[in-house]
Amino acid sequence: TVATPAGDQRLTDKADHLSLAVPSSWVSEALASSSMSRQLTAVATANPKVKGIMALDIATLLHAQELGVFAVGVDSVQSVFSYSVASPGTTALSQVPPTGFTTSLKSAGDHNVSSKPVQLAVGPAEQVSAQTTFEGTTLSELFDYFVQPGRLVFMVLTAHSTQLPTSTFGQIEATLAGS
Which 3 state secondary structure label does DSSP give 43? Predict the structure, then answer.
């Protein structure tokens, strides 16, 4: 098992059998598919600093088939969440090349788009990073994706920043564990 660092809280994504830790100061939400947009809009309304990243998170999570964990650092203006989509027949990461994501992000106007393979406690993954302008705000996004039987699982960090939040993401990645 992976230890939860002192001062962190562990969040569990039961649908995808994983957990991760984020700072205890972050606001976490147990998302329900039927009310996800309303839940995250309420968090943004209560914490106006995170409105921009919350809008992007909602747009991303609309594509999710299984919602996982969600937490937002109001002071750091960063959020992390997990979700998955069905991918019948997918058994290996090599079946889902990162070019599908990077090409789509570049076509959407994102910049500084890149990808690299990473090794997580749950197995091999691809990490994709990009910067975008969403509703007039510059945002950075990092996401790892990996294969669970018949599913693609995503762990995403969004930040209101022109710099990729690699340090925060690395700390969260180090706490990722299968459950």
Answer: helix
pLDDT tens digits for range 106-123: 999 999 999 999 999 889
pTM: 0.91
And the tokens for 170? 């690395």
* Nearest Cα residue to 173 out of 127, 130, 116: 127
User: Where are the strands (E) in the chain, listed by range?
Assistant: 8-13, 18-23, 27-28, 66-73, 78-86, 111-120, 123-134, 137-148, 151-159, 177-178
- Each as own residue / partner, the long-range contacts of residues 136-139 (CB below 8 Å, 24 or more positions apart, any chain) are 136/52, 137/52, 138/162, 139/52, 139/53, 139/56
- Say if residue 179's pLDDT is above 80: no
Distance (Å, whole) CA 51 – CA 127: 25
The C-alpha atoms of residue 60 and residue 70 are separated, in whole angstroms, by: 12
